[in-house]
Write a structure and sequence with these properties.
The chain has 357 residues and is α+β, with helices and mostly antiparallel strands. The protein has 3 domains: 10-94, 3-Layer(aba) Sandwich (Rossmann fold); 100-118 and 210-316, 2-Layer Sandwich (D-amino Acid Aminotransferase, Chain A, domain 1), CATH 3.30.470.20; 122-204, no CATH class. It has helices at 20-36, 46-51, 79-86, 96-103, 105-114, 128-138, 260-273, 320-332, 341-352, and strands at 10-15, 40-45, 61-64, 122-125, 141-144, 155-160, 163-167, 172-178, 184-186, 189-193, 196-200, 203-204, 211-212, 214-221, 224-232, 251-255, 277-285, 288-296. The strands form 4 sheets. The chain has an 8-stranded mixed β-sheet, covered by helices on one side. Helix 1 crosses helix 8. The radius of gyration is 24 Å and the shape is globular. The termini are far apart.
């Protein structure tokens, strides 16, 4: 299906129709960036691709945004196999292996720690007694759903009256273990099944509520960091405010000076994960860090948040989609054909020969 001609590469952006309200602007901006450098990107819904597989256009690459395999849950085809069947031999801008790795926060942590990338202390356990011990040791911890993004499902946990208490922003709950099943709420009790994934809260610890560390986001494009943002809150009133996420009310601002150490750490993490475009979140305090918190990529599971485009300081230079589009196009364009050495030598001698007027 892939073209042999790369003078004007064609890229399909695959997504699920129900996600259009969330990804429409991303597709528009990516398409504009691709068009600006002579390529073509066009949207394709997974629903339409499955309904008309013979009508799919020939493309050189596939950019994937969130989608679910059509059909009932029991009959759904594996997403990776489905895409391989619909777009055979077409390379993905972000391979499924990288998409799945960044979606699975435990797998991300295991990969990064194996590569020696510093991260906050964490624990993955089925034993709720170990959960209590970890929270007590660090005073505050973040209980995370292993597969999530945008702070979804995160709770700040601490010990109160001998019990593990969690705050998610709207309510505080007593967290109690349960065997198997899903998370269930019963009044102020949150019945939470294992495995439990907790990460130490990196913050300025004092007698009262701690103040969080500085949360940085490196935008990775083709082994470079074109720009950085910082996420912050104006006020910290309750423990859940320590989760500094735009989806939970935090704000963005652009940073123009970031330490060489932070930059090298972000690039090292991206390389360890096989990330060519995405974001690496770091956290640091005056006395600790920087540490890598997590990594996000555009994928069938999630998207990189672009809400920073709405702040007054936004300029074209901070257009993440334009940076990504240009990097994708550079990767698709073939270099000029190699000229044999003998022919290069002959051309040089010809250029040096005296010209007759």
């Amino acid at each position: 299906m892939a073209h042999s001609e790369h003078s004007n590469p064609r890229i399909a952006c695959l997504y699920g129709a129900p996600f259009e309200p969330f990804v429409g602007d991303i597709i528009r901006d990516l398409s504009a960036g691709v068009f600006a450098v002579g390529g073509h990107m066009f949207p394709v819904t997974i629903e339409n691709a499955c309904a008309h597989p013979g009508g799919l256009p020939e493309v050189d690459a596939l950019y994937v945004l969130p989608f679910d395999s059509p059909g009932t849950r029991a009959a759904r085809e594996d997403e990776e196999a489905l895409v391989g069947r619909l777009f055979p031999r077409v390379p993905l801008v972000t391979p499924f292996a990288v998409q799945n790795l960044c979606w699975d926060k435990v797998a991300t942590q295991e990969r990064l720690l194996k590569q020696g990338v510093p991260m906050p202390a964490a624990i993955v356990t089925d034993d709720f007694a170990e959960v209590k011990s970890f929270v007590r040791e660090h005073r505050f911890a973040i209980l995370k759903e292993p597969k999530s993004c945008g702070g979804a499902g995160h709770l700040v946990a601490w010990i109160e009256d001998g019990r593990v208490v969690g705050d998610c922003g709207s309510h505080q709950y007593r967290i109690e273990p349960r065997r198997g099943g899903r998370i269930e709420l019963d009044g102020d009790r949150l019945h939470y099944p294992g495995p439990y994934y907790l990460q130490r809260l990196i913050a300025h610890q004092g007698r009262g509520m701690p103040l969080p560390g500085q949360v940085l986001r490196a935008y990775i494009v083709d082994k470079e960091v074109p720009f950085w943002t910082e996420r912050y809150r104006e006020n910290y009133r309750r423990p859940s405010d320590l989760i500094i996420n735009a989806g939970l009310g935090a704000r963005y601002r652009f940073l123009h000076n970031v330490s060489h150490e932070a930059k090298m750490l972000a690039l090292r993490a991206a390389e360890a994960l096989g990330m060519t475009s995405g974001v690496i979140d770091l956290i640091r305090t005056p006395g600790a860090g920087p540490y890598v918190l997590e990594a996000d990529v555009d994928s069938r599971h999630m998207v990189v948040d672009r809400s920073f485009k709405r702040i007054p300081e936004y300029r074209d230079f901070f257009d993440f989609d334009d940076h990504v589009a240009r990097a994708v196009m550079r990767g698709l364009r073939q270099p000029p054909p190699e000229i044999p050495r003998a022919e290069r030598t002959a051309r040089r001698h010809k250029d040096r020969a005296p010209r007759r007027l």
